[in-house]
Specification:
CATH architecture: Sandwich
Oligomer: single chain
Number of domains: 1
CATH superfamily: q2cbj1_9rhob like domain
Radius of gyration: 19 Å
Order of helices and strands: EHHEEEEEEEE
Length: about 210
């Protein structure tokens, strides 16, 4: 077996997830926030109409900075999962502006290899109200192996089918595009602003398994 370890144990079907806080991102975030809000003022439904334009097509210094951060993260991701050959990809990005009550339903990202989000501004205070099952402003990811947690016992790492992250400004997340996820409602009067993106592989025979 290719994944077999020396002791006879192997871990099958892993899903690699990446998150990292970018240091000293405040000036860039302010520039991104201004750029995104200016774009939203002239584009109705910008957040939901994400396929009509590619945010990264514009030549703007702060977008070039963000593209560099994303590309470095993608390179690190590929190295971590053991892909030891050159991979050529493009980025397709769009901005999300979530006001009070805004959310994103459960979904994944077809026609791409990896997907991710960079957080520009996240409300500090969220009003959860009296219900304990609300997770305002959070993003949740779900185990792609349906009901795999049903066999989990105490101490088993598969017991929780959900990874829930409370993001903060400057955080970048990266995951396989097949992974289902959702964004919980923003329950603050402050805007929740992020840049989401897809990593789309350019055609090449080197990707074909042998």
């Amino acid at each position: 077996m290719e994944n077999e370890q020396d002791d006879g144990f192997s871990r099958l079907w892993p899903t690699t997830f990446f998150q990292r806080k970018i240091d000293n991102a405040d000036p860039a975030n302010q520039a991104l926030l201004s750029l995104i809000l200016q774009a939203e003022s002239s584009r109705e439904d910008m957040t939901v109409d994400y396929t009509s334009e590619n945010l990264f097509a514009a030549s703007v210094p702060v977008l070039d900075w963000l593209k560099q951060c994303i590309n470095q993260s993608v390179g690190g991701y590929l190295k971590n999962v053991g892909i030891g050959y050159d991979v050529d990809w493009s980025l397709q990005g769009w901005a999300n502006v979530n006001r009070r009550g805004d959310y994103h339903n459960l979904h994944n990202h077809p026609h791409s290899y990896l997907s991710g989000t960079y957080y520009v501004q996240v409300p500090v205070l969220q009003e959860a109200g009296s219900r304990s099952d609300l997770n305002p402003g959070a993003i949740s990811f779900f185990d792609p192996r349906g009901q795999a947690n049903m066999n989990a016992i105490l101490g088993d790492g598969q017991i929780d089918p959900e990874l829930r992250i409370q993001p903060e400004a400057g955080l970048i997340l990266l995951w396989p595009s097949f992974l289902h996820h959702l964004v919980h409602p923003n329950l603050s009067d402050e805007l929740r602003v992020s840049v989401s993106f897809n990593v789309v592989l350019k055609n090449g025979d080197q990707y074909l398994p042998t």
